[in-house]
Amino acid sequence: MLTSKLKSILAQVLFAVNVFVLFLVLAESRVLIPDWLHVFGRMHPLLLHFPIVIILLAVLLVGIPEFLPKKEDSREYGTDLLLLGALTAGFTVIAGLLLSHETGYAKEALFWHKWTGLGIFWGSSLLYYFIDSQKQLVIKVGASFLALIVIVSGHLGASITHGENFITAPIENNEVVMVSLEEAEVFPHLIYPIIENKCLSCHKASKQKGELRMDTPENLLKGGESGPAVEPFDLENSLMAHRINLPEEDEEHMPPEGKPQLTEEERLILEAWISSGAIIDEKVMALPDTSSIYKLAVEKFSTAPKVYEFAAVSDEKIEALNNFYRKIQPLGIESPALSISYFGRANFDPNSLKELSEVKVQTISINLNNMPVKDEDLASLSAFPNLEKLYLNFTDIKGEGLQALIGLENLSLLSLAGNNLTDEAIEPISKLKNVKKLFLWNTGLSKESLEKLIAALPQTTIEIGTEEKSTLLMLNPPVIRFDKAFFKDKLEVKLTHPIGTTSIYYTLDGSEPDSSNFMLYEKPLEIKENITIKARAFAEGWIGSTVSEAEFIRATISPTSFEMLHLPEDRYKGDGKESLFDKKKAIPDVWNLNWLGFLNNPLEVEMEFKEPTDISSMAISLWQNVGSRFFPPKEVEIWTRPDASQDWKLSKTFRPQALEKNSPSFLRQVEIPYSENGIQHLKIVASPVDKLPSWHNSSGQKAYLMVDEIVLN
Q1: How would you class 319 by CB atoms within 10 Å of its CB: exposed for 0-12, middle for 13-18, buried for 19 or more?
Q2: In 381-464, which ranges are E strands?
Q3: pTM
Q4: Cβ neighbours of residue 578 under 8 Å, at least 6 residues apart?
Q5: Any idea what the Cα angle at residue 357 is, between residues 354 and 360, rounded to 5°?
Q6: What is the pLDDT of residue 381?
């Protein structure tokens, strides 16, 4: 119990605090807050718990004097607690008023929290000053009102800090709307749910921490006080990617410590989304099949809809069938059902479908989007008796081969979007009576043909992607088709687009094709030298597409045999040593399976040529990205020997030019100045940078050497 002298002193302090609070309220827009006071303002979340507990206990004692055995004790203890509660509420209000001057909080949300907080302070002060002169009924009403306003203010504060539905979220209907892979859109269905669950509590209209809103894609790309949260195609300079990868204990890590953290899958999806250009208005199915965002999306939207009676296939058998262009995975932890997805059209072989005979019973979903599948290849699909979902978007089929699907009694979803179908497709599609959902957008079928299908399949939902004529849509980029990007003598390259009425503009000098700088594609191109093709699609009534790009490199010499003496890092192990001379061009995507990444060991390759070989030029094709720690080698050594019985002799040492802070990120060839005649045994040793420079964010750490191919001419 407080002594009379102490109570008198505290009452005078309370009066002084009231005067200071009144001054802050009246002069709020005209007073300049010094930096040291902002430190006190940020203590608001720490201070607010004291008055809440003390005031609620005080109103319990003064409002219900029967709470204690002696009413006099209840009133006396309650009055003392009311004094302490009002005083601590005053300091909390002062801290809150100072904190409100900082950016990041919406005015409307702050307005109500501010005035309910002031109501707590002034209400508890008035109740304390006049408690002795009031009747018990008035005290009870005042105490009840004070308790109510404490609850309301606490709720408003929690809404600002944790989100508007923080308290009611557990009882709200938060059922996730499930969409199929065909219907899924990149931003609304793949990206926004992550942002909504992990970011919006601090970055929405009512609370914009760091002046950053993330509730719309436009606000996300606009960014906040620290700049854009997302830089499309630039993971290194995207603030979001930087913050989510910081250690959780770092004060700049996002989401903040104590908030729900991103799962590994969510982090990978956000990184892949940024790397793929922060796509906003495209369907998942329109993405390149080689991109990591596409692969992650396919896995996310693949689900097992029911229980199956057939036996499961062993993990060993599934693993044996998986490779860098084909992914087989169960649709659930306990489910025997399998889904199969193909990636990278340059690697596709129609005969690989026949390799799946061991899992044909268990396969219920096959994804062949963007693969060069032809009508005659569809016959292999008739061997999958339990197939339920078949994705054939943007393939080379015309429709006649769809006859092979008629016997698939369990087929319930068929997607043929982006194929240039002919009228011959109508008859076999009309016989697919068990298909519940059919996707036919951008197939070129006439209105009459579509009407025939609708009449023949009344039980089927047919999606044709109808748009209002006033809406201009962007074309998908053209497809650059070729065998392998590394070639020996010459290479044929085709440019195609699923919409037959498009014109394809291209350039061969690395410049961007547009209406004033282009060559019109008319026939396959014959490539005989190192070159970069860039292409765009244009059509009347459409917005021109984004640029498709492909680099072609002449490599005339390959060793008869070769060995890689050190294994790459597990994260970037590609197709093992075969990646070095497989003539497959990697793309700037960390999940592309053509990369070999070296960190703790050098790239060391011993090569043998069947006959003495003249070498006039040599290069290492690699990925340079300063922010991702992808650096050219620190040093390259060339060793030779006359035959396998003799020791290696150092023939050349070469140090590439060191990177600078602003060095661009791109795929490049590090040319090694070396030429020699009559080589039969050759060894290349390329050592990664073992200590990043002082200007780098990870200075002192090792750099990755990301190798795609060794080029010999």
Answers
A1: exposed
A2: 389-391, 413-415, 437-439, 461-463
A3: 0.45
A4: none
A5: 120
A6: 92
